Automatic annotation (TrEMBL):
Protein name, UniProt field: DUF308 domain-containing protein
Transmembrane domains' residue ranges: 39-59, 65-85, 97-116, 122-144, 151-170, 182-204
InterPro entries with a match to the protein in the record: Acid_resist_chaperone_HdeD, DUF308_memb
Claim: Signal is one of the keywords in the record: no
CC terms in the record's Gene Ontology section: plasma membrane
Keyword terms of this UniProt record: Membrane, Transmembrane, Transmembrane helix
Lineage of the species this protein comes from: Bacteria, Bacillati, Actinomycetota, Actinomycetes, Kitasatosporales
Organism: Streptomyces chromofuscus
Pro residues composition bias: residue spans: 1-18
Pfam families xrefs: DUF308 (PF03729)
Length: 219
């Protein structure tokens, strides 16, 4: 789950913070921050979670090799989305997001490095990733009072934690059972991320509307 930036969304162009002789927006960190804090980036993260979930649910008889490759690609892509989203957060809240991005990438590499691993190993990797993600997301929702749509983020964190606990406590005995379990949770998590992205878009539109109405018209 990609947590949006803490402060309320700002509408309109921000004043350039670059020094003389520097083109506005030329700082890579600033560009990544704008991208990671946008609702379209959150939407892309939701799609990256939904698509593998739909694929594994529609193809439950796939081999364990195919399942491991799909999960590995999902973890790598999600790790990339989370890394960029880190730059859209305040400096004091970037460390948990960065740790999650690294965790996702490492887990994805483990799945792709040995796709013929056992069902128990694949369940362990995914379960730990989701459990840690859920705990950190829930903590972020409780600790950041200025976080927009805290309720949705909190529900997403709880859902991810429950998904991790279920996968760890009830390991599937076959590739088909594991596929259906992981596919179901991926679809649920993707739908929650989609709700967060749409909520952020609505908040940005409200902010733009309020800014237009509060700006005095020139004589």
């Amino acid at each position: 789950m990609t947590v949006p930036r803490g402060p309320a969304p700002q509408a309109g162009p921000e004043p350039p913070a670059d020094g003389p002789g520097t083109a506005p927006g030329s700082d890579p960190a600033e560009l990544l921050g704008r991208l990671g804090g946008s609702w379209t980036w959150l939407l892309g993260s939701a799609v990256a979670t939904l698509v593998p979930g739909i694929i594994v649910l529609a193809w439950p008889n796939g081999t364990l090799h195919v399942l491991a490759v799909l999960i590995g690609l999902y973890l790598l892509v999600t790790g990339g989305f989370r890394f960029v989203a880190v730059f859209g957060q305040e400096h004091g809240r970037r460390l948990p997001g960065l740790l999650l991005a690294v965790l996702y990438v490492l887990a994805g590499v483990l799945c792709l490095r040995n796709p013929l691993q056992t069902i128990a190993a694949l369940s362990l990797i995914v379960g730990i990733v989701w459990l840690v993600t859920g705990m950190l997301t829930t903590y972020a929702a409780l600790a950041a009072e200025a976080l927009p749509h805290r309720g949705v983020v909190f529900c997403a964190g709880v859902l991810a934690a429950v998904a991790g606990i279920v996968v760890l406590a009830l390991p599937a005995e076959s590739a088909v059972a594991l596929t259906r379990l992981l596919g179901l949770w991926l679809v649920l998590l993707g739908l929650v991320e989609l709700a967060v992205a749409l909520a952020l878009r609505a908040a940005l539109r409200r902010a733009r509307t309020e800014r237009r109405t509060s700006t005095p018209t020139a004589a």
